[in-house]
Amino acid sequence: MNPPSSPANPPQPQTAVVYEAYDMTQLPEHPGEGWTRFVCISDNHSMCFHVPYGDVLIHAGDLSRNGTLKDLEVTLNWLKALPHPTK
Fold first, then answer.
1. Phi/psi of residue 38, nearest 5 degrees
2. How many helices (H) and strands (E) does the chain have?
3. In this predicted structure, what is the pLDDT of residue 41?
4. pLDDT tens-digit readout, 56-85
């Protein structure tokens, strides 16, 4: 437990939390107002899967299976349908 804040003991800021792995059936809760949740995914190769909600979605890596326009469209349509406000 943190001691009460005072001029000699200012409140300690909360620190960020990074989840490298988690149980998909029990997703970590959003940290709340004033926080930004980044969700990072990669190498989906035109596969669509459940993505936890966040404020910002970052995709790094291979978007398509074979690099065809059809494969890329599958991924782009999936990404567009995800509810993340910033992608």
1. -100, 135
2. 1, 2
3. 94
4. 999 999 999 999 999 999 999 999 999 999
Alpha helices in 1-87 (DSSP H): 69-81
pLDDT in tens, 3-36: 565 667 776 677 888 888 888 788 888 888 889 9
**4: its two tokens:** 């009460």
User: How would you classify residue 17: left for phi > 0, otherwise alpha for psi between -120 and 50, otherwise beta?
Assistant: beta
HSE, side-chain direction, 13 A CA sphere, residue 57: 18
CA–CA dist 57, 31 (Å, integer): 16
CA distance 48 to 30: 22
